[in-house]
């Protein structure tokens, strides 16, 4: 993409309503535009990052055996009355009526609807286990939306729902999603720590939050420093090896880890003082096993191998991609702007022509632009007449991991400068070397 053709509405000043780093930088970098309290439009730069986050989520959900569907945002109230949650959910639920005065709602979550889909089609234990997921917009009418997309009213959610014959099968499904989440966040460059959590209004008796550490995190968390060295399993794992999944979950839940709400001071103090870590954290994922909480009142049953009907056991598994974009910024930034991990960066390379119109600069940049693009890497080519300082500031602000800079002096020698946004290091190399580094397929 050429910067001269790219819609990138940067802000020089930080809006007063932006309280945290991610909100400030997302507004300044032209990633989002607030339309009303807690409701945002996603502009091109933000949408590219959001799509990359979603792509990783999709890949890891499918690798773990989940089937993608897409459910509507508007749901009939009768489903929620059937489960008993319609009157209990509270004012966060946006209740509406259609033109025929039928009670409807803008879905804050989808347990009821996915259970209705399941019971309409699945009759036998032979069709289990089953996991259905989608990535869809949700609405929760927060009394005080704040922190930009970190706590907005409308947000994108990946929610998955597992169905199994019994508790044993449901826990195996829980383990698969637990491991899938470890891989998902690690692929994004994040160190996510699973912490036992309160199940809240979702219900059930088993739940974990996945927390990343960040100075501006909304929650106080306590954990063993061992988590900082733990690595998610690699791509070659067998999600259907139940013993292997259970072992990974045990390994990642044995060290102490808790949010402030679930904190046990005596258990925490049992850790050696040098191994304790108290910090701020941001929730980026939440998983639940809730048994028959929804399948029982909604009569979701299958015929078992004994010929009898059995109420299915369920779990739900959430990741908020819109919230996750902000969380990544909270974890990766400096005073100049965002420092995207490469897997989710909007562009891998920022190509900067320091003097458009200079023959050598133009020739080198065009050559690099074509080579990098042909490799499949995303490149943003600054072909504008902006001054040098503004060019550098723009690429630092939007967080492109690599800057390739062609100035008249270096271009005359057939060289370019390469800057690493993560650590600020710079290196001068030949054009051929730059092509080999970024233009190789």
Structure notes:
The protein is α+β, with helices and mostly antiparallel strands. It folds into two domains: 3-338, BirA Bifunctional Protein, domain 2; 347-438, Rossmann fold (3-Layer(aba) Sandwich), CATH 3.40.50. Helix content is 31%, strand content 28%. The radius of gyration is 24 Å and the shape is globular.
List key phrases describing it.
single chain; five-stranded mixed sheet; globular; 441 residues; Rossmann fold; BirA Bifunctional Protein, domain 2; 2 domains; alpha+beta
Classification by helices and strands: alpha+beta
The CATH class label of the largest domain is: Alpha Beta
C-alpha termini separation: 18 Å
The helical percent reads 25-40%
List strands and helices in order, with pairings.
Elements: H1 21-28, E1 32-36, E2 39-42, H2 44-63, E3 67-68, E4 74-76, H3 77-83, E5 94-97, E6 103-106, H4 111-121, E7 130-139, E8 154-164, H5 167-187, E9 192-196, E10 206-213, E11 219-224, H6 242-253, E12 257-259, H7 265-269, E13 276-291, E14 301-303, E15 309-311, E16 313-319, H8 321-331, E17 333-334, E18 337-338, E19 349-353, H9 359-374, E20 379-382, H10 388-398, E21 402-406, H11 408-412, E22 415-420, E23 426-430, H12 431-438
Parallel strand pairs: 3-7, 19-20, 19-21
Antiparallel strand pairs: 1-2, 4-6, 5-6, 7-8, 8-16, 9-10, 10-13, 11-12, 11-13, 13-16, 14-15, 17-18, 21-22, 22-23
